[in-house]
Structures are given as C-alpha cells and as structure tokens.
Amino acid sequence: MTDAKPAPLTAELLWTEGVTFGARSGSSAIVVDGDGAAGPSPMQLLAEALAGCMATDVVMIVTKGRHPLKGLRVVLTAERAPDPPRRLLGIALSFHLIGEVPAAAVERAIALSTETYCSVWHSLRQDIELTTTFDINP
Questions:
Q1: pLDDT for 67-78, tens place per residue?
Q2: Is there a contact between 99 and 136 (Cβ–Cβ < 8 Å)?
C-alpha cells in the first residue's frame, strides 16, 4: 500500500460576460452559466456530478458482479432551501436499469456507492436527506 497522495483536482474559470464562464478541468472544457442558459449552472453541475458519480459506481459494481447490465438511466430530483444560499436540502435519485440484474445486486451497488465510493456524495453536507429508488426492466 502506498502513502502517495492523489494529485490535486484543479479547475480554472474564465469570466466571459454576465454570469457566464469558460471552465476547464484537466482535458475537458465547458461553459458554466449562473443563469443556466449558455451552459449548466453551478447547481446543475453539482446535480450532474452526484448522479454521474453514483451511476459510475453502480455500473462498475453491477458489471464486476458479472450481471448483464444493458442500460442505465438515472434521474435526480433535488429540493433546495427557499432562501439564500438555497442549498440542497434533499436529493432523490431514481435508477432505471435494463438487463437481467438481480434486485439485491442493485441494492448492494447503491449502498456501496453511498456508504463508501461516491466521492461527490461524501463531499456534500451529510445532513442532506438522500433517498434512492430503482427499477429493473429485463
């Protein structure tokens, strides 16, 4: 086992106009728009990051278990506080799988993601209520 620290995560934003920024992290670049018009807003990016992190975990865990996953769609709905800073209060993630995947394998994958692997979830305040559901369509 190595004690090497992972490389730091870096991002750079360059203001273009209004509340729009060009953003770059590693080799990828996007437009971030505080109004959500020219690109995703910071909160939309956060939602996509969480859904993407957990979806990645579920795919990796289910396929490592040698279950025939043929498709996955994740829908995230979040409740925000009514007043600034309008932080997230609750998040619901619904996983829609296609394939002959046992429900127990999906439950285990979601649990491992939330309890151990999803770095995005573990970077958020832990008083945010998280609920997950799933369905499997063979």
A1: 999 999 999 999
A2: yes
Is the separation of the CB atoms in 56 and 50 below 8 Å? no
- Among residues 66, 88, 65, the alpha carbon closest in space to that of 77 is found at 88
Omega before residue 6 within 30° of 0, cis: no
The first and second tokens of residue 108, run together, are 């285990």
Reported as a single tens digit per residue, the pLDDT across 83-130 is: 999 999 999 999 999 999 999 999 999 999 999 999 999 999 989 999
Q: How far apart are CA 94 and CA 76, in angstroms?
A: 6
Contact between residue 65 and residue 100 where contact means Cβ atoms under 8 Å apart:
no
CATH code of 42-137, in short, is 3.30.300.20
> How far is the C-alpha of 51 from the C-alpha of 28, rounded, in Å?
18
The two structure tokens encoding residue 31: 């437009």
pTM: 0.91
For residue 3, what pLDDT is reported? 76
Give the residue extent of every domain in the chain: 1-40, 42-137
Only one residue has tokens 């829609």, namely 96
